[in-house]
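Hi everyone,

Forwarding the result from last night's run.
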Amino acid sequence: MAEPKLLPPSMRAHKRYVVFEIISEKPVEYGDFMTAFWSSLLNLLGENGVADARIWVIKNLFDDKQQRGVVKCQHDFVEYTRASLMMIQIIGETKAVVRVLGVTGTIKSAKDKYLGIRDLRDFSKSDGK
């Protein structure tokens, strides 16, 4: 049986990564944020719109200490994603404001610019050793 051919990158859906920060009275857990975010998305776009946007919160990049995270979406739905993040007022039982830090085209640039996550390649060997 022949393997199916992969789509070339030019024909694939264009993705964007929205980096956000949660400002709240108390630290917010990932599960509470997800509930508030999906509720906001469904209120704004409806089920059909959310399915078309292909929105995905990247769990590995949600930082509980800094209260920052990354949401992946289609390039056509960046403004809707930003709007739904900014419409969140209560997360769990805590008053909160979600601030969008920026939008990038790759996860690597989101990590470098907004999350402060560095790679081992960023560090060079010291001159004397």
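Residues 30-53 form the longest helix (24 residues).

Cheers,
N.
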